[in-house]
Amino acid sequence: MEILIGFIVLAIAIYIIGKLISIPFKILKNIVIGLIVGSAAIWVVDLFGMGIEINVVNALIASVVVYIISSII
Taking a C-beta distance cutoff of 8 angstroms, is the pair 62, 39 a contact? Predict the structure, then answer.
């Protein structure tokens, strides 16, 4: 009986730890996707002659905007 209880406790602990580890990876994945989409959006706007350069600050701002919009949708 103790082995069964130990197995159940271990399974629950592994499940909780897995959930805690996967949350930061999901956030990181969303930020990287936002950076790529934001940089592509800045590049497309630049193609139309708006004069926006791609740098870290612009990419991060575009990433945040894309992240917020994707969270709403």
Answer: yes
